[in-house]
Each structure stands twice: as structure tokens, then as C-alpha cells.
Design a protein that fits this description.
Helix content: under 10%
Oligomer: single chain
Order of helices and strands: EEEE
Low-confidence stretches: none
Number of strands: 4
């Protein structure tokens, strides 16, 4: 993970990925990959957001 910021209203995440080895990549996108994030307190009513995008977007289960 690259970044995590918790506020009273949301949890902002930036998650990095590594390039696959090799010279040729025919990638049409990334499939959903489970990832566990440990928070300082339960998520509750806070909204998880992808802070790697501008504007940020809510993260929803696939």
C-alpha cells in the first residue's frame, strides 16, 4: 500500500501495483484482487475512497 488517511467521514487509500516482468504486456486491465487494510478503528459509516484518482471515487465491492 502506498497511502492511508483516515478521517471522520472517509478512509482514503492509494494502493500501488508492480509491473509484471518481461518486455511485452497485452493488458486490458486488472481483475479485482482482494486486499486487507488494517484501520485504527472500525469503518462504521465512513466511506472508503480511492485517493489515487482525481476526483476521489468511492471504493465498492466488485
Amino acid at each position: 500500500m502506498v497511502g492511508l488517511e483516515e478521517t471522520d467521514r472517509d478512509v482514503r487509500l492509494v494502493i500501488g501495483v508492480e509491473r509484471a516482468p518481461g518486455d511485452f504486456h497485452n493488458c486490458l486491465g486488472n481483475r479485482a484482487t482482494p486486499y486487507t487494510v488494517e484501520l485504527s478503528r472500525p469503518l462504521g459509516d465512513r466511506v472508503p475512497r480511492d485517493a489515487g484518482l482525481h476526483p476521489m471515487r468511492e471504493i465498492v465491492k466488485p
